[in-house]
Amino acid sequence: MNTKPNYPVEMVDGLGLNLEQRLYVIDNGAGFSCFGFDNCFEEAQHLSDLMELPALDPELRGTRECYRLNEKLLRLFAKHPASKRTWFRPGTPKAVQRVLEAARASCDDFGTNGTMLRIFYGDPQTGRDWCEEHSTVGFIARTGGVLRVPLLLEPLLDGERNLCRSEFGDAVNTANIVRIIDVRRAEEVYRAKNYVLPQFAIEVKEGNAAYPVVVTREDQSVAAFDSHEKAAQWIAFMQGFRVHQAFRTQKEHRAELDTVLD
User: Fold this and answer.
1) Tens of pLDDT, residues 157-169
2) For 80-100, how does the pLDDT look when each residue is reduced to its tens digit (9 = 90+)?
3) Where are the domains of the chain?
């Protein structure tokens, strides 16, 4: 958030506790941001584990002391050899880490000729696929800084229709990956043991002239199209039988960035 929250929060040295929503409220000078109690504790515990420090007291969760400890651990981590490695969110399966790191190395070595992945996000506890459509196909890179987070760089087409990649990417939510497909080989390289393949149905809605073909999941409308063919192609992509959709052009990508920045 960019403005001061409208709920009552006592700020002490730029830090407030929103007990109702279990959030730290941080005054950044130009605005306010939030950090979940659980995320803060788990990140601090993960930092401690990576630096082989003692485990945190669970009673710290949701306290100001926990947030300040997290800040201290981040400063220590910046000077620790472990900071040179890729940062994976706590709870990320080792198999997922290996696949992402191999894809990142391939991208570093071979650029757009390297490994391209299709990532499926979901609930690791239930294996239920969230059916995320966007920011799920691309090359793996990573950020700089203290926490070197994996990034997904979108594959694009240049003016001559050659494959390239975006200069910016979205952070990969590594702890919520339930399935991964190697796009070039059309081969599944990771699947959570409890993964649930999403099931869809196609219905025709009368009176909806523009997009009469509706895709439903669990009796809820999730997408609409002007033909059965497009609906079937979308379902195939969401289920992983079609490994990627049509790539956007650099021009289209830049136009979207300009819209967001404006």
Assistant:
1) 999 999 999 988 9
2) 999 999 999 999 999 999 999
3) 11-82, 94-197
Q: Enumerate the H helices of the chain as residue ranges.
A: 37-50, 64-78, 94-110, 228-239, 250-261
Give me 109's structure tokens.
């070595």
Dist. CA 254–CA 22, nearest whole Å: 37
Q: CA nearest 250: which of 160, 162, 156?
A: 156
Question: In Å, how far are 87, 108, 161, 235, 254 from 250, measured between CA atoms?
Answer: 29, 21, 10, 26, 6
Confidence class of residue 29 from pLDDT cuts 50, 70 and 90?
confident
Specify whether the CB–CB gap between 56 and 48 falls below 8 A: yes
User: What is d(CA 172, CA 153) in angstroms, rounded to the nearest whole number?
Assistant: 10
In this structure, what is the dihedral angle of CA atoms 76, 82, 85, 91, given to the nearest 10 degrees?
A: -90
The pTM is what? 0.88
Q: Which amino acid is at 40?
A: C
